[in-house]
Amino acid sequence: MKKTLILFFLVISFVFAKVDYSEMSTQELIAIMGYVKAENKKQFIQELKSRVATMSANEKKAYDNNLAKLNK
């Protein structure tokens, strides 16, 4: 019974969990450009834009290459 209750709450927490892009690295954000769900896209774009100023040259190059995927 106890295990079932814990499993139930775990499943519920995954269902209602929001994606927190601030916890992801810049490289991870660049890698998932184009794969973000429509309902999370606004938050994703805001987080990505806030990091553009601090990106390295390699990150900016990857960002520019993947920018077309973001607008799909």
TrEMBL record:
InterPro entries per UniProt: DUF1104, DUF1104_sf
User: Origin, by domain of life?
Assistant: Bacteria
Q: Name one Pfam family in it.
A: DUF1104
User: What protein name does the entry list?
Assistant: DUF1104 domain-containing protein
Species in which this protein is naturally found: Poseidonibacter ostreae
Q: What is the lineage of its organism?
A: Bacteria, Pseudomonadati, Campylobacterota, Epsilonproteobacteria, Campylobacterales
